[in-house]
């Protein structure tokens, strides 16, 4: 059974309003959540109890089930055993109530060759009815220090710049809970420090972060709760 290895909560804890909300609903409640296909285990049974306003980093070796777990938490994949709620809802990425509460980056988000970097973010900001979508888009690009790429087409970027753009596409819209799969991918150490600072700010503003990561820096700075996944014997091939 996978379980978090104990709490490393911030001294300050959640704000009063977060605590009140947490009384009513958890960020994540998973009991024996598992995924298997035939006799092969993708994710061994996993328990998670995470309060709103706290962060979870999921670690573990390659193939231990991190992406599978994030996919189950975001409704991209259905668990084959156990139960799970996220922000009090059954994960279903086609339900507008769930999409309003939970967003994330798992793998690559689709991009259009017809749109510039800024236009991708403006489209997302408009779809979430942000009042000044262009301003919101530019602010987000500035926060990740890629505003100089605003007028480039999205397919004209380096791999690290593409990663930052994809993170910006997720960060530009509001969400209670943010799920990121190995956000450190393809980032140099300066950009990784910047990303961690941006995520710390989101966390301080009340967003719950759920990250999978191989980066010790991410684990140390964002992993209030740490869940190292292990593969079940039946998962070894
Ligand atoms: N579509 C699939 N069908 C069958 N098995 C799969 C599928 N996707 C992943 N797996 C297997 O499930 C297990 C967990 O994969 P997963 O991608 O969740 O691991 P991970 O911890 O995210 O790995 P990494 O650190 O390499 O990203 C692996 O053994 C993998 O080979």
Automatic annotation (TrEMBL):
Sorted UniProt keywords: ATP-binding, Nucleotide-binding
PANTHER family recorded: SKFA PEPTIDE EXPORT ATP-BINDING PROTEIN SKFE
Domain ABC transporter: start-end pairs: 28-236
InterPro entries: AAA+_ATPase, ABC_transporter-like_ATP-bd, P-loop_NTPase
One protein family per Pfam: ABC_tran
Name of the protein this chain belongs to: ABC transporter ATP-binding protein
Annotated source species: Brevibacterium picturae
GO molecular function, a single term: ATP binding
UniProt keyword annotation of Plastid present: no
Superkingdom of origin organism: Bacteria
Coiled coil: none
Region (Disordered): 1-22
């Amino acid at each position: 059974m996978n379980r978090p290895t104990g709490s490393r909560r911030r001294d300050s804890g959640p704000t009063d309003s977060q605590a009140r909300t947490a009384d009513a609903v958890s960020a994540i409640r998973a009991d024996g959540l598992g995924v298997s296909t035939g006799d092969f285990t993708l994710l061994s049974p996993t328990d998670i109890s995470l309060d709103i306003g706290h962060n979870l980093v999921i670690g573990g070796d390659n193939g231990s089930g991190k992406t599978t777990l994030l996919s189950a938490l975001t409704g991209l994949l259905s668990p084959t055993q156990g139960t799970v709620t996220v922000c009090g809802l059954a994960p279903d990425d086609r339900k507008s109530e769930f999409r309003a509460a939970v967003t994330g980056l798992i793998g690559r988000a689709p991009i259009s060759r017809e749109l510039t970097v800024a236009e991708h973010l403006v489209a997302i900001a408009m779809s979430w009815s942000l009042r000044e979508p262009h301003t919101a888009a530019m602010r987000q690009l500035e926060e990740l220090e890629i505003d100089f790429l605003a007028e480039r087409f999205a397919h004209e970027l380096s791999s690290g710049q593409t990663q930052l753009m994809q993170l910006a596409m997720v960060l530009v819209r509001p969400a209670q809970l943010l799920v990121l799969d190995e956000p450190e991918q393809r980032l140099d150490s300066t950009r990784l420090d910047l990303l961690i600072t941006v995520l710390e700010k989101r966390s301080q503003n009340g967003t719950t972060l759920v990250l999978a990561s191989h980066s010790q820096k991410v684990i140390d700075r964002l992993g209030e709760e740490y869940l190292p996944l292990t593969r079940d014997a039946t998962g070894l091939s």
